[in-house]
Amino acid sequence: MTPKDTRQTILDTARAMVQAKGYNALSFRELAKDVGVKSASIHYYFPTKGDLGAAVAQRYTQDAVGYFEKLAARGDDVETTFRAYADVFRAALRDDNRMCLYGIMAAEYGDLPAQVRVEVDRFSAANAEWLARLLARRHPDLDETALRDRALATFAAIEGAQLVARGRGDIAVFDQMLAAYKAAGLTP
Question: Which CATH number do you get for residue 171?
């Protein structure tokens, strides 16, 4: 494995671990075992757990923003675009009942190192900004502040639906909550 491949494998494995068990449960020793390297190798790429957590969250945000832009570029209607957005959160539940990385890290926010908090905040901001642009297509009469508020509420609703569905171990709960949000006019 090349150094680049090793780094990517570490990031991928760390992401899966955090999504399944949370940041506080992330262990260099367990990570090294899962990747098939020595713990010192993890420290070579990421000197501290905070460095690793920040890199995982940064890449997660970059991947999400890239996906959001692809969704926007497709030119689908607001409802179709929103469904594709929400499907990302649903997919995490299908993948061994995992959480969105943001959701699980936000729950541990007080325990996160500063550099990880910065990256977690970027994910939230990126979602709210993208949702505000999407919602502006449906609500052109709303001012920027109202759109941002609605976008943040929509993001919180999706994260909340995922959390409740995960807690119940039932992906159908996620679908039921999204249907209820739509009926209430909270989501497209």
Answer: 1.10.357.10
Asked if 87 and 161 count as a contact pair (C-beta separation under 8 A), the reply is no
Q: What does residue 122 show for φ and ψ, rounded to 5 degrees?
A: -65, -40
Q: How far apart are CA 115 and CA 183, in angstroms?
A: 39
* 135 in Cβ contact with 155 (< 8 Å): no
Instruction: State how many domains the chain has.
Output: 1
Residue 77 falls within a domain, yes or no? yes
The predicted pLDDT at position 112 comes to 98
- Contact between residue 11 and residue 56 where contact means Cβ atoms under 8 Å apart: yes
pLDDT surpasses 80 at 187 = yes
73, 137 in Cβ contact below 8 A? no
Domain containing 169 equals: 53-184
